[in-house]
Structure prediction request, 106 residues.
Amino acid sequence: MKHQTYEQTLERLQNRTTVDPETGCWHYTGANAGDGYGHLSYLGKLVYAHRLSAAFFLGFDLGSVLWVLHRCDEPDCINPEHLFIGTPKDNVRDAVSKGRMSGKKL
Prediction:
């Protein structure tokens, strides 16, 4: 199987996106990992759509151990303005600050 180029993958990502005018979320409508997070193939690997968006629009290194987190808490959102880079601990802090998780383990 031939790998798709950067441009082809970016086009696939954009063609499988709908924009919510109220929230500004760019909802990825392609394949779903079963947990709400979109994914697609890039350079022969299955990659989360929000990580690809961060790579394409924010310069995120896909080989990084860091996470791509959502300000909007929408797993299928790929709007780079709604994404930020952080650690697993940052993800927990974000969840606690938004009342989605107890802060007892911090």
About this structure: The CA atoms of residues 20 and 94 lie 23 Å apart. The chain has a mean pLDDT of 91. The longest strand covers residues 39-42.
